[in-house]
Amino acid sequence: MVESSSCEPKEAGELSCPARSVLEALRTIVLNKGSRKQRLRDAAQTLRQSGGYRWVGLYDVVPARGIVSCLVWDGPGAPQYPEFPMEKGLTGRSIRSGKTVNVGDVASDADYLTALESTKSEIILPIIGDEGLVVGTVDVESQFRNAFGPEAQALLEECAEVIRPLWDRAART
Asked: Taking the mean position of all CA atoms in its chain, how far away is CA 133?
């Protein structure tokens, strides 16, 4: 985990932890011997602290059931939709495209599923598995509009790639 003293909340779009330390912390978490669930919790906490974000959730995509399921979250409350159809919301858009979905003002996006009333912007990062399919997502929410500028998006995409092994088949057992 990233030391909380090094990661303080900032204004919209500002990174509060040096990128190198966030990536190093996530690499360490992935390599830890703890349970998958604990490593995912640690990763969610690290991601949340890295930008002073309000909420982070890590999700499994379960095509056989047609759902997205929240594995862990870090923030002020549980997600309103711990499971939902994989074609719904901003997450569904990310799954269909296999690309990051970055919405600066969720109130203006018809696909947004309200999770927490104070969310102003959200970014969904797909986790691409070995077969090239989306196997999971990283959901980061902010209380600020336009919180995920190009620098923040690039770092979060790199972070998603670093934690991708936590969705590998071996990590699930």
From this structure: 17
